[in-house]
Design a protein that fits this description.
The chain is about 35% helix and about 15% strand. The protein is of the alpha/beta class and about 325 residues long. The chain folds into 2 domains: about 130 residues, NAD(P)-binding Rossmann-like Domain (Rossmann fold, 3-Layer(aba) Sandwich), CATH 3.40.50.720; about 190 residues, NAD(P)-binding Rossmann-like Domain (Rossmann fold, 3-Layer(aba) Sandwich), CATH 3.40.50.720. The protein is globular. The protein starts with a strand and ends with a strand. The relative contact order is 0.14. The model has no long low-confidence stretch (mean pLDDT about 95). It holds the Pfam family 2-Hacid_dh. Keywords: NAD, Oxidoreductase.
Length: about 325
């Protein structure tokens, strides 16, 4: 059987091909799954998709009509998939429920340190042999307060690094993580965390209840010199409200690896095109903001685990097995 994999990055392709060797043929496409590309899947019982694939009703209907019966998404998040429609159409859907939390936590810290210590600006200057220090002053993080929204596996990994920096720890989640408590984390209401934290990092999933969890009111509650990092899902932050606050001169730094309107932009080369997203265009102009292209997970360790889990999901489907990765089970 040939598996069709959409949205495969160049570095990811050899890992996928090696993993599937001896099991199934796999054809890797660098194009993402959209309404326009969905017809390509015709005749393929199993497809694999990336996190920014469009798996809304129209795409799912096209897939089902073309003979697709199983979707193996190569990510933990699945907010891009209409699960109710998939179930109605008889499509099995599986995701990757776990991969290295350190990849994302370490990248979140990379963003935090980069904006705090003005690394991008400093690097750009030295390339032009400008070695002035004007505008490059950062802050020690030791003794300051880290606020972690979401203390699951990734949030815990982020917290352990914050503890290593000697920071005070505030957490918010629906349930306390004993490992974080053991590190000295104090769980508080979200409003208190936003008001007291010097560094705020987001590690909650994107759900209806968490969409725009950082909205205009939340942003106004934060310290004027706070650092904000989002390496989870773009929809957690109201980007228009964030731009408004940045224009008012607030926040020492903002590091975003995700953006709420990233679908159709991220993972693609748009350098020769006019980007019509005015919010993103404005966002990247602020000197205290770093935007990266949803790469926090992108380590050989994490991607290797994602690929292995995707293969297992495919093998489970063909063998009629069900695992914890299944979001919509195989129709009986």
């Amino acid at each position: 059987m040939e598996i069709l994999a959409f949205g495969v990055q160049a570095d990811e392709k050899p890992l996928i091909e090696h993993a599937f060797e001896g099991h199934h043929d796999v054809r890797c496409l660098d194009v993402s799954l959209t309404e326009d590309t969905a017809p390509i899947a015709a005749g393929h019982e199993i497809i694999s998709t990336s996190v920014n694939a469009d798996l809304g009703p129209r795409v799912l209907q096209t897939l089902a009509a073309g003979g697709t019966r199983m979707i193996a998404q190569r990510s933990t998040g699945f907010n891009n998939i209409d699960l109710e429609v998939a179930e109605r159409l008889g499509l099995t859907v599986a995701r990757v429920s776990y991969y290295s939390p350190y990849s994302v936590a370490e990248f979140a810290w990379t963003l935090a340190m980069a904006v705090n210590r003005r690394i991008v600006r400093a690097s750009s200057r030295t390339r032009d042999f400008d070695f002035r220090l004007d505008g490059l002053m950062g802050r020690d993080l030791r003794g300051r307060t880290a606020g972690v929204l979401g203390t699951g596996k990734i949030g815990e990994a982020f917290t352990r690094i914050a503890h290593g920096f000697g920071m005070n720890l505030l957490g918010w989640d629906i349930a306390e993580n004993p490992a974080c408590v053991a590190l000295g984390m104090k769980y508080v209401e979200k409003e208190q965390l936003l008001a007291e934290a010097d560094l705020i990092s987001l590690h909650v999933p994107l759900l209806p209840s968490t969409r725009h969890i950082i909205d205009a009111a939340a942003l106004k509650a934060m310290k004027n010199d706070a650092l904000l990092v989002n390496s989870s899902r773009g929809g957690l932050v109201d980007t228009d409200a964030l731009v408004t606050e940045l224009r008012a001169g607030r926040f020492t730094g903002v590091g975003l690896d995700v953006y709420e309107a990233e679908a159709g932009l991220f993972f693609r080369d748009k350098s020769l095109e006019v980007v019509e997203d005015d919010t993103l265009a404005r966002l990247v102009t602020f000197p205290n903001v770093i935007v990266t292209s949803h790469q926090a997970y992108y380590t050989v360790d994490a991607v290797g685990q994602i690929v292995d889990a995707t293969l297992k999901n495919v093998l489970d489907y063909t063998a009629g097995r069900r695992s914890e990765n299944v979001l919509v089970p195989r129709a009986s």
